[in-house]
Amino acid sequence: IEGMLRSLRTVDSLKSQRKAARRGESWPPAPPFCTLSWLRSKILYSLMAADRPIWWTMRQPVSILLVLMAICPLGSSLITFGLLLLVLDKSDEYQLVTYITCSKLALFAQRVGLFCVDLWRLYACATADTCT
Q1: How far apart are alpha carbons 76 and 122 in whole angstroms?
Q2: CB atoms within 10 A of CB 74
Q3: Exposed / middle / buried, residue 114 (Cβ in 10 Å: 0-12, 13-18, 19+)
Q4: What is the rounded distance in angstroms from the CA atom of residue 79 to the CA atom of residue 65?
Q5: CA–CA distance, 129 with 16 (Å, rounded to integer)
Q6: Which SS3 state, helix, strand or coil, does residue 77 take?
Q7: What is the chain's pLDDT, residue by residue, as a tens digit (132 residues)?
Q8: pTM value > 0.85
Protein backbone atom coordinates (compact mmCIF):
# COMPACT_ATOMS: atom_id res chain seq x y z
CA ILE A 1 0.00 0.00 0.00
CA GLU A 2 2.84 2.37 0.79
CA GLY A 3 4.32 1.76 -2.68
CA MET A 4 1.00 2.70 -4.29
CA LEU A 5 0.79 5.89 -2.23
CA ARG A 6 4.37 6.81 -3.20
CA SER A 7 3.59 6.26 -6.89
CA LEU A 8 0.46 8.44 -6.58
CA ARG A 9 2.53 11.22 -5.00
CA THR A 10 5.05 10.88 -7.84
CA VAL A 11 2.28 11.19 -10.45
CA ASP A 12 0.88 14.25 -8.69
CA SER A 13 4.31 15.86 -8.54
CA LEU A 14 4.87 15.17 -12.26
CA LYS A 15 1.52 16.75 -13.08
CA SER A 16 2.35 19.84 -11.05
CA GLN A 17 5.78 20.10 -12.76
CA ARG A 18 4.14 19.91 -16.19
CA LYS A 19 1.64 22.62 -15.26
CA ALA A 20 4.44 24.82 -13.97
CA ALA A 21 6.43 24.32 -17.20
CA ARG A 22 3.44 25.47 -19.28
CA ARG A 23 3.07 28.73 -17.37
CA GLY A 24 4.90 31.70 -18.82
CA GLU A 25 6.67 32.62 -15.58
CA SER A 26 9.06 29.68 -15.87
CA TRP A 27 10.09 30.49 -19.44
CA PRO A 28 13.19 32.52 -20.33
CA PRO A 29 12.68 36.22 -21.13
CA ALA A 30 12.02 37.38 -24.67
CA PRO A 31 15.02 38.47 -26.75
CA PRO A 32 15.54 42.19 -27.50
CA PHE A 33 13.33 43.68 -30.22
CA CYS A 34 14.66 43.93 -33.81
CA THR A 35 17.39 41.32 -33.58
CA LEU A 36 17.78 38.04 -35.42
CA SER A 37 16.96 36.09 -32.29
CA TRP A 38 13.72 38.09 -31.92
CA LEU A 39 12.78 37.27 -35.53
CA ARG A 40 13.62 33.60 -34.95
CA SER A 41 11.50 33.45 -31.82
CA LYS A 42 8.60 35.25 -33.56
CA ILE A 43 8.61 32.73 -36.44
CA LEU A 44 8.90 29.70 -34.19
CA TYR A 45 6.26 30.94 -31.73
CA SER A 46 3.77 31.72 -34.49
CA LEU A 47 4.20 28.22 -35.97
CA MET A 48 4.82 26.03 -32.90
CA ALA A 49 3.47 27.77 -29.79
CA ALA A 50 3.64 25.52 -26.75
CA ASP A 51 1.04 27.39 -24.71
CA ARG A 52 -1.54 28.10 -27.43
CA PRO A 53 -3.99 25.87 -29.31
CA ILE A 54 -3.71 25.17 -33.03
CA TRP A 55 -6.61 27.54 -33.72
CA TRP A 56 -4.59 30.46 -32.35
CA THR A 57 -1.68 29.45 -34.57
CA MET A 58 -3.91 29.38 -37.64
CA ARG A 59 -4.98 33.01 -37.05
CA GLN A 60 -1.47 34.47 -36.82
CA PRO A 61 -0.45 36.57 -39.85
CA VAL A 62 3.12 35.22 -39.86
CA SER A 63 1.84 31.67 -39.74
CA ILE A 64 -0.68 32.28 -42.55
CA LEU A 65 2.02 33.88 -44.73
CA LEU A 66 4.47 31.01 -44.20
CA VAL A 67 1.82 28.36 -44.87
CA LEU A 68 0.70 30.08 -48.09
CA MET A 69 4.33 30.39 -49.22
CA ALA A 70 4.90 26.71 -48.42
CA ILE A 71 1.89 25.57 -50.43
CA CYS A 72 2.65 27.75 -53.46
CA PRO A 73 4.33 25.52 -56.11
CA LEU A 74 6.29 28.36 -57.74
CA GLY A 75 9.52 27.92 -55.79
CA SER A 76 8.62 29.99 -52.74
CA SER A 77 8.19 26.74 -50.81
CA LEU A 78 11.95 26.18 -51.09
CA ILE A 79 12.57 29.60 -49.56
CA THR A 80 10.05 28.95 -46.81
CA PHE A 81 11.40 25.56 -45.81
CA GLY A 82 14.98 26.80 -46.10
CA LEU A 83 14.14 29.65 -43.71
CA LEU A 84 12.44 27.23 -41.32
CA LEU A 85 15.44 24.90 -41.41
CA LEU A 86 17.71 27.82 -40.50
CA VAL A 87 15.66 28.91 -37.49
CA LEU A 88 15.01 25.44 -36.04
CA ASP A 89 16.86 24.12 -33.03
CA LYS A 90 18.49 21.00 -34.50
CA SER A 91 18.81 19.38 -31.07
CA ASP A 92 15.03 19.51 -30.49
CA GLU A 93 13.47 16.33 -31.82
CA TYR A 94 9.93 17.79 -31.79
CA GLN A 95 10.91 20.67 -34.06
CA LEU A 96 12.67 18.37 -36.51
CA VAL A 97 9.76 15.94 -36.71
CA THR A 98 7.32 18.85 -37.15
CA TYR A 99 9.53 20.28 -39.92
CA ILE A 100 9.62 16.98 -41.81
CA THR A 101 5.88 16.44 -41.39
CA CYS A 102 5.04 19.97 -42.54
CA SER A 103 7.30 19.73 -45.58
CA LYS A 104 5.69 16.46 -46.66
CA LEU A 105 2.20 17.85 -46.03
CA ALA A 106 2.98 20.97 -48.07
CA LEU A 107 4.30 18.84 -50.93
CA PHE A 108 1.11 16.77 -50.83
CA ALA A 109 -1.06 19.93 -50.83
CA GLN A 110 0.91 21.32 -53.79
CA ARG A 111 0.36 18.14 -55.79
CA VAL A 112 -3.35 18.02 -54.97
CA GLY A 113 -3.70 21.64 -56.07
CA LEU A 114 -1.83 21.02 -59.32
CA PHE A 115 -3.93 17.91 -59.92
CA CYS A 116 -7.14 19.94 -59.55
CA VAL A 117 -5.86 22.62 -61.94
CA ASP A 118 -4.86 20.02 -64.54
CA LEU A 119 -8.16 18.20 -64.13
CA TRP A 120 -10.01 21.43 -64.77
CA ARG A 121 -7.86 22.11 -67.86
CA LEU A 122 -8.60 18.61 -69.16
CA TYR A 123 -12.33 19.09 -68.60
CA ALA A 124 -12.27 22.52 -70.30
CA CYS A 125 -10.33 21.11 -73.25
CA ALA A 126 -12.58 18.07 -73.61
CA THR A 127 -15.81 20.08 -73.58
CA ALA A 128 -14.58 22.93 -75.80
CA ASP A 129 -14.58 22.89 -79.58
CA THR A 130 -10.85 23.59 -79.77
CA CYS A 131 -8.04 23.01 -77.31
CA THR A 132 -5.52 25.82 -76.87
Answers
A1: 26
A2: 8
A3: exposed
A4: 12
A5: 71
A6: helix
A7: 565 556 656 767 767 766 766 666 666 666 677 778 888 888 888 888 877 888 988 898 988 888 888 888 787 888 888 888 888 888 888 889 989 998 999 999 999 999 999 999 999 888 888 776
A8: no
